[in-house]
Amino acid sequence: MKNSSLTMHSEASVRSVPLVLAWRRPLAARLDRHPGAVFILPAVLVILAFSIFPLLASLYVSLTRLSFAEGGVELKFVGLDNYLKLLVGIDRTHFLGVTPGLTVASAIVLAVIYAGLGFLLVRYIRGPALTAVGLVGRLLVALVAGAFAWLLVSTLLTTGRPGTLVVTIIYVTVDVAVQYLLALGLALLVVQRLPGRRFFRVVFLLPMMITPVGVAYLFRMLTDTSKGPLYPLWNHFGLSDVSWVTNPWGARLAVMIGDIWQWTPFIFIVLLAALESVPEELLEAGVVDGANRWQLFKSITFPAILPATTTVVLIRIIEAFKIVDLPNVLTNGGPGTATESLTLHAYTIWRALDIGGSAAVAYMLVFVVTFVGISYVNLFRRRVAAMA
Amino acid sequence: MAAMRGWHRYSSIHRPSPAGMVLSYLLLGGWAIVVLFPLYWLAITSLKTPIQVNAGPFYIPFRDFQPTLESWRYIIVDLGADTFRPYLNTVVVGLTSTTITVLLGSMAAYGLVRMRYRVRLGAIACFIGALAVAVAERALGNDDIAFWMISQRMLPPVAAVIPIYILFQQLGLLDTWGALIIAYVAAHLPIVVWLMRDYFHSIPLELEESAAVDGASPYRVFRSIVLPLAVPGLVATFLFVLVFAWNEYLLALFLTSANAQTMPLTVAAQNATRGPQWWYMSVLIMIMIIPVIAMAIVLERFIARGLLVGAVKG
Known about the structure:
The complex is a heterodimer.
Chain A (H helix, E strand, L loop, with lengths): L1 H13 L4 H4 L2 H9 L1 H27 L2 E6 L2 E6 L3 H7 L4 H4 L1 E2 L5 H23 L5 H25 L4 E2 L1 H27 L6 H9 L6 H11 L8 H6 L11 H29 L3 H9 L4 H28 L4 H7 L10 H10 L3 H33 L1
Antiparallel strand pairs in A: 1-2, 3-4
Helix pairs in contact in A: 1-3, 7-8, 9-13, 9-15, 11-16, 13-15, 13-16, 15-18, 17-18
Chain B lengths: L1 H13 L3 H28 L4 H5 L15 H9 L2 H34 L27 H10 L5 H14 L6 H25 L3 H9 L4 H12 L1 H17 L2 H6 L7 H6 L2 E2 L2 E2 L1 H27 L2 H7 L1
Helix pairs in contact in B: 4-14, 5-8, 5-11, 6-8, 8-11, 9-10, 11-14
């Protein structure tokens, strides 16, 4: 390495490079030989230093009981206590929810879900693409998905009530699904050559630009049943004295509407950029072949925007899991803990100075998101990438 | 001119029938109302007195209530420096961190798209954060690095703030622009990498290859060919990251106090002991979004321009 750079140096001076520049040669040459490292290292190093350290530190904190002693903090290692408290201990109803026994109807629903999972597994095992790693991965996914299904069914379809984990999963599922469908529809409308389309494109971006805390307060104003703009509506139904905040599903709906309002633009703009780059010639060729609009969309447009779709959905899923401002400001997590998300859960415990417990909740969230993210990437995104 | 050409090219496919046009406008108009009404409510709330806000819903200025600029005067004139200082902080931190993030992020994204990386298992000790690793016994490739990066977004900030706080305390950066800029760059890099990866993927390899054959270094190819072609993606990404940095709340809450405080904190501070001061809050939110909206209007053209279409098949 040293040798070669020296040779290059001497060669360079043979070619009578100005002396002033000569000292830069070895470095420049070295950079030229490792473009890969130069491109990626700055980002990796920043993330290592300022994301990895907090990540590891939090993991350790989640295994401790942190107390504020004089002139600093005191960490007492307690092992998995913080986690056990959430799963089987006193915080179980807060985190997982109340799970009474299954009723007949909910047992049937659960059985159907399990049958579906089993069917997918059997199809994979019989299929041609069977590998050991793939099988183990899918078994694991099926197992965890089955556990989530049990939790959802036994808190939502029975007399039980959901904990913060289930509430967060509901938020993420409903929010991202609705946001995606709305955004796709709007992007398809705006990509048309309509006069005035630029106006709509800019207007549709607006909600994303408001600070989330501001959006939360804005929706608190809007949903006020006695002073908000919808007062005539509430009054008409005789609801002006009742607060929707007392109804768990009403409150959750308000939170979800706020989130959908704010984040649909994010998916919208990414899909729009992707739609803009679909080659027109492909579509024209499709028209020549006599395809109708739906066929054009299904076999040309949609596959073309699939890579962007899968990326933006993954990012939204990850961000949606961290929802906190809306439930905090809008409902303060209530009634009870009906609208409390995992991050808000972590935040309330944290305000009560149980820092270790808070970190444990946060890490539970990390585990769930990681599981969802890895399954998503492996089962879905890779396949899309292979298709493209 | 460009618009004319665009119109011509798209005319056969994207011009809807008259009935389709009416329906499109109805749907677009409907969503525009959904988007604009809350903003309208914000705007008129900023023109109301506290008494008017509390007396119930009033919809139309001059007809339903007498608008006043009292709240605007209070925020901009009476509070003067107390509003200006956080505003300046928000602008500086937002623009600086976004520029750095987009630059470093697109470099990494380009590397991940066009070069091959093999991370040796020995190096994984540093990568424990790569929660994805558990799956595999193989050497890690580009996809794994990308996933590792995005996994950095998974930890809710509330759990990470204490270590971050201690880190910046040790560096002596608390309550400075530097702390926020570094924190935001680290926080938003993964998003840039992920979004730019897709845009770089869609750039035709032939252009880069022919430039390389002509003797251009990878850096030159990146700077003079790849980046210009990716402008729509870069602009969209820049706008996102700017919006995130502009509006970030939790990290700012922990890392700043008087000096480097940003606008989202000022907004939240209006929820005083007497209850939320809706009128001041509305003014603050309004002055926060106006520059971002202006930027979106200016940059929208770039996002819209389907530059790639011409480059790929033209």
